[in-house]
Specification:
Layout: E1 19-26, H1 33-41, E2 59-64, E3 68-74, H2 84-97, E4 102-108, H3 115-123, E5 131-136, H4 145-153, E6 161-164, H5 173-183, E7 185-186, H6 201-216, E8 226-234, E9 239-247, H7 250-257, H8 262-279, E10 283-291, H9 299-304
Parallel strand pairs: 1-3, 1-4, 4-5, 5-6, 9-10
Antiparallel strand pairs: 1-7, 2-3, 8-9
Helix pairs in contact: 6-8
């Protein structure tokens, strides 16, 4: 797979009666939005972790079936922002509400509705497009099933639908997929049927590196990290990747590098294995760590680092 994998691709004509459209996935941080999208499209295009605010950009995943092409727009979790990065994330998620054909409002259905869920429900109260309230984490449900259901039903508007499912096990996702397709209008293929995302390959490479940092570091480090892919050199035998890990403080740089460079080696080794699955070939990955003070509070630095900063 080359880094210009979208260039030169052609989109065939869809059959008569075919449906297509965009589905925005919104919700609080860490309710399983990215896990859900990955399961539905059958391939990992969004990174996941137990760390809140793992998703930072609007990410599109493409599901093509014989009946419809569903373009999922995975958004950052809606939360109270504490810096410019947080404001950008929330703004991007809110913009998705007004730029899709159907909204899938995902909540953690294993626990009662909270203030964050009510805040999002209020944001959606005047939205006219179809909205599905998705109660995720059915596999973690407590015995108080009825009480949890009733709590979320109180958030719903009359024209909303509700589906329960587990993005981890797949239970209930066939019902969800059928309902989503039911709400779509007849339309064309927006993308070639074999495509699963429209994100540049370099973006996904950077995300796979960041995923390993989320997995192996703690405290303030995960939220303070950004990845820049500096260079990708492809040959028939191997793809060489040079990437920079940006952190905000020298102490964070020390944590990411680790004693004797061991942490950086672990991050690089596991990220390399994931990237090899992405490109289906051998990878040489070289990582550097750079201190870039207060990058999360600088709109210009956020833009330079590839974040979608809306005016």
């Amino acid at each position: 797979m080359s880094s210009d994998w979208l260039a030169g691709t052609s989109v065939p004509s869809a059959p008569t009666g075919y449906k297509s459209g965009f589905v925005g996935i919104i919700g609080r941080p860490n309710v399983g939005k990215s896990t859900l999208m990955n399961y539905l499209i059958g391939q990992k295009v969004a990174i996941t972790s137990p760390i809140a605010q793992t998703t930072r950009n609007r990410l599109r995943g493409i599901l093509t079936t014989p009946e419809a092409q569903v373009i999922f727009v995975d958004t950052p979790g809606i939360h109270k922002p504490h810096h410019q990065l947080g404001q950008v994330l929330v703004k991007n998620a809110q913009l998705a509400i007004h730029s899709v054909d159907v909204l899938l409002f995902v909540v953690d259905g294993s626990v009662p509705a909270g203030g964050g869920d009510r805040f999002i429900a209020d944001l959606l109260s005047s939205t006219k497009i179809p909205i599905i309230l998705g109660l995720n984490k059915l596999d973690q449900r407590s015995l108080d099933t009825l009480g949890i259901q009733q709590g979320y039903q109180q958030l719903m508007q009359p024209h909303w639908s509700m589906v329960e499912f587990s993005a981890l096990t797949g239970v209930g996702l066939e019902t969800l997929q059928n309902l989503l397709i039911q709400f779509l209008e007849p339309g064309p293929y927006y993308y070639p049927p074999d495509l699963v995302t429209d994100q540049p390959e370099r973006f996904i490479m950077a995300e796979l590196i960041r995923e390993q940092i989320l997995a192996h570091t703690r405290e303030e480090v995960p939220h303070s990290v950004a990845i820049v892919i500096d260079r990708v050199e492809e040959s028939p035998k191997i793809t060489r990747i040079l990437a920079t890990i940006c952190v905000e403080r020298s102490s964070q740089k020390g944590i990411v590098i680790g004693k004797g460079g061991q942490m950086l080696k672990t991050i690089g080794s596991e990220a390399r294995q994931q990237i090899q699955k992405l490109i289906d070939g051998s990878v040489y990955l070289e990582l550097f760590v750079k201190v870039q003070p207060k990058w999360r509070d600088s709109r210009s630095q956020l833009a330079d680092l590839g974040y979608q900063v809306e005016s």
